Amino acid sequence: MKKIVMKFGGTSIATGENIRRVATLVANGAKKGNSVIVVVSALDGTTDELCEAAEHAQKENEAYIRKFTQKLLKRHSAVAVKAIENKSIQKEIEQVIEKTIDELEKVLTGISYVGELTPKSRDYVLSFGERLSAPIVCGCLRDLKLESQWFTGKEAGIVTDSDFGEASPLLNVTTHHVKQRIGPLLEKRIIPVVTGYIAATQDGVVTTLGRGGSDFTATLIGAALNVNEVWIWTDVDGMMTADPKIIPSAKLLSVLSYQEAAEMAIFGAKAMHPRALEPLMRENIPARIRNVFNPKNLGTLIANSQTAQRTDVVKAIAIIKDVAMINISGAGMVGAPGSYAKIFEVLGKNCINIMMISTAVSEANISLIIRRNLLGRALSTLEIALLGTGFISEVTAEDDVCVIAAMGANMKGTLGVASRIFTAMAQKGINIRMIAQGSSELNISFVVKEKDGVAAVRAIHGEFKLDKM
Ligand code: ADP
Ligand code: ASP
Ligand code: MG
C-alpha cells in the first residue's frame, strides 16, 4: 500500500465531465489499496477572472460585481450538476457554492466601497477559485461511493509568511499541522481534498503561494505526510523537450533529476511551479507528471540524480514571453564600487524581481530582464533614484523581447554547446540581444525579439535533434 498525493490542474477539472474522469482516477488508486490525498486547482481560467474582477471592483459599482458573481455561480453550479449524480449530494454542494459566492460578493463590494485593492485583499479574492472547485471534486468522489472531506489550505494547516501574492511556507509549523489534521483521515480511509494555492499566515489571514501554486501545495503536503509519490496530473503527457503547444514534435522526458526539473520550471516550462520541488528534494520523494487524458502513459518521473539518467547535453528548451529588458549605461559606473548594488537595491525595495543580468567587463552598462508588467514602475523608480546622481547617464527599455533557455545537466563541462546554439540562431538570422549562463551550467539563456521567439526554440530543438529522442 502506498501513500500518494494526486494534484489536478485547472484544465483537468474544467468541466463536470473532466471532474468525473479525475474522480475515477482517484477511485482506481484507492481501490488498489493506496491512500490518496487530492489537491485541486481552480476550474480553468477562474483565477484569471477573479484577478480581473478584483482590479475592476476598485472602480466599479455593485451591478458589475453582481454580474460577475452570477456568472461564476452559473458555471460552478452547472459543473457540479454534471459531476455529481446523487441529488442530495448535488444539492448540498450547490448550497456550499452559493454560500461561498455570497461571501465573495461581499468582499468585492467592500473593495468597491473602499476604492482600493491591497495585496492582502487581492489574495483573499483569489482564494475563491479553489474554494469553489474543491467541494465539487469532493462531492463527485462521494458520488462514486468513496468517503471524502474537503479542506482549504488554511484548514489543512499550510502556514506562510505574509508576503501576499507569493507567500513562503513556514515548514515546521506546516508539517506539524498537516500531520495532525490530514494524517488521521488516511487511517480512516477518508480521502482528503485540499484546495491548492491558498494558505494562511499564523494569524489566519489568507495568503496565496504564487500563480500555479497548487503544485507547491501538493508537494508540501506530500513532504509533511512523507508520502511515497506525488503525482501532478495535467493536460500533457509530462515534462517535454519544449512546450508541446508551441513545438508539436516535442518529446516526452521520461526521467528528470530534481535539479533539471526545477531549472525547467524556473525557466518558464509552465508545467510546474518553480518552488514545487523544494519539499520533495529535501525528503527524497519522487514526483510524477501525468496526463489525465492519457493515464496509460507513465509520464515524467522526477527523482534524485542517481535515478535520473543524464545523457543528453540539451534536454529541453523554454520560452518566457512576458518579459522586458532594461539597459542602464553610464561611464560613472566604471570602477565605482557599489554601483550595481544601488541599482539592485532600488529595484528590490520596489518589489521588482530581476530575472536575468548581463554586464560587460567595461562596466559601462548593465542589462536586466524583469516581468513586463513591472516595466513602467521599474523605469520611473530607476530614473527618480539614479539619473540625478551622475553615475548613470541613460536608462532605456525594450518591451518586445522574450527569454529563450536551453537546459540540461550534461551541459556542465561540455564544450561547444553555446557555439551550436548561437550558430543555429545566426543561420536563422535571429539577432541576440543579451546572453547569460548561470554558474550552475545547467542552462544557457538569451534574449531575442519576441517575434523571433518561436523560430529560436524550433531552431535549437532541431539542432540538438530533440524531436528524434
Ligand atoms: P495545470 O492547469 O495542470 O497546472 P499548466 O497550464 O499550469 O497546467 O501547465 C501545463 C502546461 O504547461 C501544458 O499544457 C503546456 O502547454 C505547458 N508547458 C510549457 N512548457 C512545457 C514543457 N516543457 N513540457 C510540458 N508542458 C509544458
Ligand atoms: N489557480 C491558481 C492559478 O491559476 C493556482 C494553480 O492553478 O496552480 O494560478
Ligand atoms: Mg499549473
Ranges with pLDDT <50 over ≥5 residues?
none
> How far is it from the N-terminal to the C-terminal residue, by CA?
34 Å
Rg to the nearest angstrom? 24 Å
Please provide the count of β strands. Answer: 16
Shape category: globular
Question: Percentage of helical residues?
Answer: 40-55%
Look at the helices and sheets and give the structural class: alpha/beta
Main β-sheet description? 8 strands, mixed
- Strand content range: 15-25%
Strand order of the largest sheet: 3-4-2-1-7-9-10-8
Mean pLDDT: 92
What are the distinct ligands in this entry?
adenosine-5'-diphosphate, aspartic acid, magnesium ion
Account of the 3D structure:
The protein is α/β, with parallel strands linked by helices. It has 16 helices and 16 strands. The protein has helices at 16-31, 46-57, 62-83, 87-114, 119-126, 128-143, 153-156, 171-181, 183-187, 214-224, 258-266, 277-283, 339-349, 375-386, 417-427, 453-463, and strands at 3-8, 35-40, 148-151, 191-195, 198-200, 206-208, 229-234, 255-257, 287-291, 300-303, 316-329, 356-359, 365-371, 394-407, 434-437, 443-449. The strands form 3 sheets. An 8-stranded mixed beta sheet has the order 3-4-2-1-7-9-10-8, sandwiched between helices. The protein has a 6-stranded antiparallel beta sheet with strand order 12-13-11-14-16-15. β9 (287-291) and β10 form a beta hairpin. α8 packs across α10. 45% of the residues are buried. The mean pLDDT is 92. Adenosine-5'-diphosphate binds next to β11.
Keywords:
16 strands; alpha/beta; globular; binds magnesium ion; 469 residues; binds aspartic acid; 8-stranded mixed beta sheet
